[in-house]
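ZP: hey, is the inosinic acid complex queued? I don't see it on the tracker
AM: it wasn't, my bad. submitting now with these inputs:
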Amino acid sequence: MVNEVLISEDKIAARVKEIGAQITEDFKGEEIVLIGILKGSVPFMADLMRRIDLDTTIEFMQVSSYFGGTKSSGVVKIIKDIDIDLRDKNVIIVEDIVDSGNTLAYLKNYFNNRGCKTLKIATFLDKPSRRKVELVPDYVGFTVDDLFIVGYGLDLDQKYRQLPYISWVKEV
Ligand code: IMP
Ligand code: MG
């Protein structure tokens, strides 16, 4: 069962609006490509894109670093790639949470090799206390403690993604 609400729907909406405004400001006059990492980024992506006032396209990619349970394996596998040319594009990777940093360190390297003009990371949550590799996201919704977070896209064994707020569960 999930525990108490850590971040309410209202707080999420207000913060996502701020990040959208920040991205709009930072990329004024430019086009951007948002690349959402499935499946966890879906609610954040859907809310964030509607708060960005720029020429924007969206893509999705699926990777896996967790094979069930609450511990990352550290091995990143691409399950679904994107098929557009990223050369000279302003790319923002949209992720649910940065934990060890393995997934985003891998993706950053992967996209940098595809010739983007700029590459930024927008993560809804950041859990810096668990970092195993150096990775500093450019846009962060909220910084969270070392708890296993669920809701607003984040899952435990594929469950709880649909919760409109952020909560946590006991690690198994
Ligand atoms: P990292 O590679 O360790 O940074 O982990 C990134 C991925 O692990 C995220 O995209 C999430 O899917 C998953 N993850 C990490 N921490 C949590 C958590 O607290 N709750 C749910 N999923 C998590
Ligand atoms: Mg995920």
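AM: back. Residues 69 and 157 are 6 Å apart (CA to CA).
ZP: great, adding it to the tracker
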